[in-house]
């Protein structure tokens, strides 16, 4: 993936998120003239934004006190600085957002784990290591849901969308907001029968 | 103003009631309408704010995950709010994310946008209201929703309130009618009755009528009562007047009959006196005559002179008695009217005077054809007196003109006898016709003072008038009128 200058990245993001937009508004003063069409955000810019947004629609039953909301990336980091830039301006449940690159064994305390499609067969292993930890697993691997992942990025008409495996979500003690499910491209599995834990 | 002055009181009251209630209703109608429009607008704005919040909350994830379809499904729920014509959701960068049009053929151009510092704003575009509202999520905002709604039909609520007001006006009209009938009963009817009574009183002078006193005890009943009392007083006064007039008339009648009786007695007395005096006077006259002719040689000059004076006195007394009898006859003699010619009578008198006392040069000027309907004997007496007077009072003139004629004055024939004799002082003109009143001494012009009184009596009995004009030394004219209808 290409690398972006910070300002360029922010322009590319097209204020997709409120926080980004606020920053953009601050930076637009120094930005090129408004009639200059800003470049379309890349697929990974969108995915980075979505990752952080997912965090806002998760409720975890974990009682562990946290000092930060960690987004962990397993395998190759294709986001470049986009994710770091976004994360530094965001909070989730009033916690600062950190982007980490731990080993799979250390990823149980993460809020969200993104597994790169490039992990290939390691994906199954990584998921096994995570077990039923209260971690939202996300990947852009094509068979991620079949392998027991929770959310998988898909491309629909050149748009980044996502699919959800509710069974996998239910195994971990995570509740995804119905709002999130509403905008999912597809949802497999059944919602929890016994209401919220 | 004619509108107010030409109607009856009850009509005026009814009009006034309707006018006042109509005005009140109109004001109420307008204020209710304004309030309704205002409150409906407020309600709509509140509803719009709520809708915007719901739409915004339901569009958060759609905005965050760029799901236009989800946002449009959310927006399509606005179909249940018929007043919302259009809605649009904008991304934070101002590009359009999702749109809803109630009527797809009507485009929706967003001309007003929220400024960065605003989170919510209403714009009014004629009948439409535009709301812009930030879609907030976790302390930030993820987009903006704009709703365009039309205020509910003002005409519809105007119609609704108009219907209600018309109904109320109808009720007011009925109430006004009821009030008017009450007022008519309480005020107008007594007033009409009073006016009618007043009219009857004025037109027929009937003070016995009374206005009906109304049952209520207000100023009106007081007025009617006062009016009735006034009528009563007038009636009492009228009655007293009537009574006193009747009494007066009776008294006058009594006095008149007393007077006429006394008068008749007096006339009968004077007639009998005059008549009875004639015999002894004739006796004296005869003896005097005998003395003068048979015994005058035995008397000296003084004796003869005394006899002359006795005869003269007796003659004067005889004339006086004749005059008195004439006067008496003039009063009591019944009138026998027929058509007579005064000119002929005057001619005869003039001829007699000229032949009896023809030593004088007298020019009689008698106009002919003075025909009249009167008692011949009495008119003869009148003319003899008037022409005789003229003869007497012109006796000292060198040439005498005595005129008899008539003039038309005010549609009435006025006869006159004019002379150029001694005349009289006009200050005493009214004394001329009183018996025994004379303006000249016996030595100047001999007379009894009864002649003109007799003429006066006769003319008056014929229903005519007699008067005189003249001055000392300038002759005298006696006028009289004789209407056909007399006594």
Summarize the structure.
The complex is a heterodimer of chains A (197) and B (487). With 197 residues, chain A is α/β, with parallel strands linked by helices.
Question: Can you describe this structure?
Answer:
The complex is a heterodimer of chains A (197) and B (487). Chain A contains seven helices and ten strands. Chain A has 197 residues and is α/β, with parallel strands linked by helices. In chain A, the strands form two sheets. Chain A has an eight-stranded mixed beta sheet, sandwiched between helices. In chain B, helix 5 (219-294) runs antiparallel to helix 6 and helix 6 packs parallel to helix 9. In chain B, the strands form three sheets. A five-stranded antiparallel beta sheet of chain B has the order 2-1-5-4-3. Chain B has a five-stranded mixed beta sheet with strand order 7-9-10-12-11. A two-stranded antiparallel ribbon of chain B has the order 6-8. Chains A and B meet through helix 2, helix 3, strand 8 and helix 7 of A and helix 2 and strand 5 of B.
Q: How are the elements arranged and paired?
A:
The complex is a heterodimer of chains A (197) and B (487).
Chain A lengths: L5 H7 L5 H10 L15 H13 L2 E3 L8 E6 L7 H7 L2 E2 L2 E6 L11 E4 L6 H9 L5 E4 L11 E6 L2 E7 H6 L2 E3 L1 H5 L3 E3 L9
Parallel strand pairs in A: 2-4, 2-5, 5-6, 6-7, 8-10
Antiparallel strand pairs in A: 1-9, 3-4, 7-8
Helix pairs in contact in A: 3-4
Chain B lengths: L1 H4 L3 H56 L3 H9 L7 E7 L5 E6 L18 E6 L2 E10 L2 E11 L3 H51 L14 H76 L6 H32 L4 E5 H15 L5 E5 L4 E5 H18 L6 E10 L2 E8 L31 H11 L4 E5 L5 E6 L6
Parallel strand pairs in B: 7-9
Antiparallel strand pairs in B: 1-2, 1-5, 3-4, 4-5, 6-8, 9-10, 10-12, 11-12
Helix pairs in contact in B: 2-3, 2-4, 4-5, 5-6, 6-9, 7-8, 8-9
């Amino acid at each position: 993936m290409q690398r972006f200058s910070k300002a360029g990245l922010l322009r590319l993001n097209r204020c997709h998120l409120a926080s980004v937009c606020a920053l953009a508004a601050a930076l637009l003063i120094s930005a090129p003239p408004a009639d200059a069409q800003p470049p379309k955000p890349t697929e990974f810019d969108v995915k980075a934004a979505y990752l952080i947004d997912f965090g806002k629609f998760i409720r975890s039953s974990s009682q562990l006190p946290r000092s930060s909301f960690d987004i962990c990336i397993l395998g190759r980091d294709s986001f470049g600085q986009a994710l770091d830039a976004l994360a530094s301006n965001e909070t989730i449940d009033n916690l600062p957002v950190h982007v980490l690159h731990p080993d799979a064994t250390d990823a149980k305390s993460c809020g969200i784990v993104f597994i790169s499609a490039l992990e290939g067969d390691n994906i199954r292993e990584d998921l096994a290591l995570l077990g039923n930890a209260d971690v939202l697993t996300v990947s852009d691997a094509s068979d991620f849901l079949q392998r027991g992942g929770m959310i998988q990025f898909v491309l629909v008409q050149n748009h980044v969308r996502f699919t959800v495996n509710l069974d996998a979500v239910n195994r971990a003690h995570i509740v995804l907001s119905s709002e999130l499910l509403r905008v999912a491209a597809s949802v497999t599995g059944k919602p929890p029968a016994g209401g919220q834990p | 103003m004619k509108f107010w002055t030409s109607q009856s009181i009850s009509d005026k009251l009814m009009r006034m009631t309707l006018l006042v209630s109509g005005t009140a209703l109109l004001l109420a109608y307008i204020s209710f309408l304004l309030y309704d429009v205002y409150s409906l607008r407020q309600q709509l704005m509140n509803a719009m704010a709520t809708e915007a919040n719901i739409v915004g909350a339901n569009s958060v994830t759609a905005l965050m995950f760029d799901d236009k379809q989800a946002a449009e499904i959310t927006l399509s729920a606005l179909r249940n709010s018929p007043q919302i014509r259009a809605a649009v959701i904008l991304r934070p960068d101002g590009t359009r994310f999702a749109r809803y049009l109630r009527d797809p053929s009507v485009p929706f151009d967003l001309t007003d946008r929220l400024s960065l510092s605003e989170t919510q704003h209403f714009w009014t575009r004629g009948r439409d209201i535009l709301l812009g509202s930030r879609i907030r999520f976790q302390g930030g905002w993820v987009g903006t929703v704009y709703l365009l709604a039309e205020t509910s039909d003002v005409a519809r609520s105007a119609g609704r309130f108009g219907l209600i007001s018309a109904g109320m006006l109808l009720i007011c009209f009925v109430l006004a009618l009821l009030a008017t009938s009450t007022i008519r009963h309480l005020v107008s009817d007594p007033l009409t009755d009073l006016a009618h009574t007043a009219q009857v009183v004025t037109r027929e002078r009937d003070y016995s009528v009374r206005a009906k006193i109304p049952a209520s005890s207000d100023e009106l009943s007081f007025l009617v009562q006062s009016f009735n009392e006034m009528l009563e007083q007038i009636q009492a006064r009228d009655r007293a007047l009537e009574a006193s007039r009747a009494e007066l008339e009776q008294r006058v009648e009594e006095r008149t009959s007393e007077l006429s009786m006394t008068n008749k007695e007096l006339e009968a007395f004077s007639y009998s006196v005059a008549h009875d005096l004639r015999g002894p006077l004739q006796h004296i006259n005869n003896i005097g005559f005998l003395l003068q002719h048979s015994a005058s040689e035995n008397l000296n000059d003084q004796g003869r002179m005394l006899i002359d004076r006795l005869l003269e006195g007796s003659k004067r007394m005889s004339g006086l008695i004749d005059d008195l009898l004439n006067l008496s006859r003039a009063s009591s003699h019944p009138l026998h009217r027929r058509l007579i010619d005064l000119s002929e009578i005057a001619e005869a008198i003039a001829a007699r005077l000229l032949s009896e006392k023809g030593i004088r040069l007298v020019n009689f000027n008698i106009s002919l054809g003075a025909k009249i309907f009167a008692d011949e004997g009495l008119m003869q007496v009148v003319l003899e007196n008037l022409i005789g007077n003229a003869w007497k009072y012109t006796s000292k003139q060198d040439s005498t003109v005595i005129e008899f004629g008539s003039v038309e004055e005010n549609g009435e024939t006025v006869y006159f006898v004019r002379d150029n004799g001694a005349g009289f002082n006009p200050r005493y003109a009214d004394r001329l016709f009183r018996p025994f009143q004379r303006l000249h001494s016996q030595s100047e012009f001999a007379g009894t003072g009864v002649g003109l009184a007799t003429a006066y009596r006769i003319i008056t009995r014929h229903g005519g008038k007699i008067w005189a004009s003249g001055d000392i030394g300038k002759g005298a004219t006696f006028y009289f009128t004789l209407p056909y209808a007399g006594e």
